[in-house]
Specification:
Elements: H1 2-14, E1 18-24, E2 28-34, E3 40-46, E4 51-56, E5 64-69, E6 73-78, E7 81-86, E8 92-97, H2 100-111, E9 118-119
Parallel strand pairs: 6-9
Antiparallel strand pairs: 1-2, 2-3, 3-4, 4-5, 6-7, 7-8
């Protein structure tokens, strides 16, 4: 029984938040984030208000939540991870696992507002 508890606890502690799905409406891209056992979050990118809002519970309060102007941040994609960083301080706001398909959707959405994700391995 203790082995099962240890394995389950390890899975919970070391699972990485990831983008599980997205919904795009006229001015909004909603990304659903899975953060572990029954804990879900989101990233909303609003092209009308030029804002990004995010919330994801993760590892005993070490998640993230907040909202900022899109002009204050830079997105990058590296090793199947979407990263959002403050432009002025280079402080990482979040790192979320993201497959290539979701990356393409997000990048396409951001291009409509003259913003683009810095991709470490662009596809040709």
């Amino acid at each position: 029984m203790k082995i099962v508890q240890t394995i389950l606890m390890g899975m919970f502690l070391f699972s990485v938040p990831f983008i599980s799905s997205h919904i795009e409406t006229n001015n909004n891209l909603h990304l659903s984030i899975v953060c572990g056992s029954n804990k879900n979050g989101y990233i909303d990118i609003d092209r009308g208000n030029q804002k990004v809002k995010y919330y994801f519970p993760y590892r005993f309060g070490k998640g993230g939540k907040g909202m900022t102007d899109l002009s204050n941040v830079v997105f990058s994609y590296k090793k199947e991870t979407l990263i959002m960083v403050y432009k002025t301080t280079s402080e990482t706001i979040f790192k979320i696992k993201c497959n290539r398909t979701e990356f393409e959707v997000i990048n396409s959405f951001l291009k409509t507002i003259d913003k683009q994700i810095i991709d470490s391995k662009p596809t040709e």
